[in-house]
Amino acid sequence: MRRVNGLATVGRALTCGGAVEKRLAQAALMSTCSSSSLNSHIFSQKLADRLGLSRPSLVRRVAGTMLFSVAASSLAQDALAKEKPRSEKFLPKEIVLYQYEACPFCNKVKAFLDYYNIPYKIVEVNPISKKEIKWSDYKKVPILQVDGEQMVDSSDIIDKLFHRINPDSSIPDGEEKKWREWVDNHLVHVLSPNIYRSTSEALESFDYITTHGKINFSSTFKDLFRKDGILLFIFNLCCFLINVGNFSFTERLVAKYAGAAAMYFVSKKLKKKHNITDERAALYEAAETWVDALKGRHYLAGGSKPNLADLAVFGVLRPIRYLTSGKDMVEHTRIGEWYGRMENAVGESARIKE
User: How far is residue 261 CA from its own chain's centroid?
Assistant: First the structure.
């Protein structure tokens, strides 16, 4: 296993290093691949001739050193990406996130909290009654309470938290700000027409929504339901039947399919509203646009750690990753490698289970 990992590491070095580094990495690779002392001697002699070095033993030492150095560098980079920096000046006693499970803006905030390993509680908001946030003048989600202090609007919440974790740093601007705005103004609008694109995908998504929270759907849906009374009636009725305990299995099943159908028709309205002609093409284009923005870097800013734009993109994509739309996105675009790195960097949820 160590040899396989070493080969993979040297492979990365061959694609990233300079001319001298590549020659030394090649030496390390060939030295590692030899399976006997005789083969090792033969390889070393050939490498000495090829690299213009007079002593094959020197090649073996250089190759071994290079292999160790490259492997150590790669491991260090992985460790840095997974590091959860915390400021001693920001140690809240209690953080509570009021959310809808499927809301992309709520998931942006959760990605930030998870990455920085900040423990938080979740309160699922009923989007019909909103009784859980009756205390607030702000009637949208997410709402974050930090030791009783209210924060609202996902981007503003993240800016405030970032400043408290990094009190000596200013809020990032330029490229990072541009792509965070792209997430809010474009990427989130591509998602709903995709996850409710067909009746089967609408059913799959409705299953996800009703099993990950009580009654929840994004604020975008609620706005559209207000404009279409029959859809609002159907959806509210379906949520009621599914979540209230004194209904039969058959009644809940009917409600499930009716709710999925309502979402399917809503997705068509969203598609028209945002001028989307082909849902999947729009999703693939958004994924490729983001990969192009990376310019070959592991993360948007380069280096070993994701920035706020990386976290924003990851946050809104995470709920769909293992739905049909998310699987298709990873299969048909180049975003999978970056997404995998982000999964490792963000790590496990910091949510406090109650």
Answer: 28
